What we know:
The chain is an alpha/beta fold. 49% of the residues lie in helices and 12% in strands.
Amino acid sequence: MKIFIDTADLDEIRLACSWGIVDGATTNPSLIKRAVDKRGGRITMEDYIAEILRTVPGPVSLEVIALKEREMVDQARMLYKKFSPHGSVAIKIPVNPSMEGGVNEFDGLKAIKQLSEEKIPTNATLIMTPEQALLATKAGAMYVSPFAGRVDDYIREKLGMRSGVDFRKEDYFDPDQLKSILERKFAESLGETKSISQPYPRKDLREILDAGHDNGVYSGVDLVRRILKTLGNYGYRTEVIAASIRNSRQAREVAELGVHIATVPFSVLKEMIQHPKTTQGIKDFTADIVPSYEELFR
């Protein structure tokens, strides 16, 4: 699995690259602005982005801000022309840039198609369903980015849980445990009646059946799994980027699926290297060093 660092902070990027684990980076306009503002006007946004590209040993995703096909294509061309001399650029295009079912629902796909024909690499972003990933792939996207963490949030919110109150975004979401709870609740609500058709007219039973998933997708990791299977069925060369990774367990689980890329925040990279018994082992190893062995290194 390739690892893209999900940050625009050059200090974090340089440090992570020094570890020898970074294969690329993903950014967004707000992350870049925040990083530039930290430097108090000592560098322009254009120079800052160029420096990110010179630092990262692989593709860097840069995002358009328009929502209409023609404007997205023009912005993508500008970004690619301006920054590709400094490194490998991929352009982030929203798979569906419409708000509330507007007329531009398919403008993201149209932009991806046009840019693909011009050999400009695209990263279809804000993927929340396998269907969206399939359409973006068929339009010619080089990468598709399912947002695993946001899907976990959405499912929890459907259950009435509140972010920051009932769960933190970095908390691991366990769909198997939730399925078990819902199955028990369904069996208790169903009672002794064994009619197969009973759940359909009963609102309480239908609510249980509909809870805990998003149209048959049970977690962000499940979303990534379904996309890999769907695209793999047809031999597409589009790479899947597991995005919105919130914790090390989620990173591990998408790696177990064989995802091509995970884009991981700096904090999660640090979490991935840690374990209490590793720390304890280092303390034990250090305590075991005898003077005669230490002399070998002098």
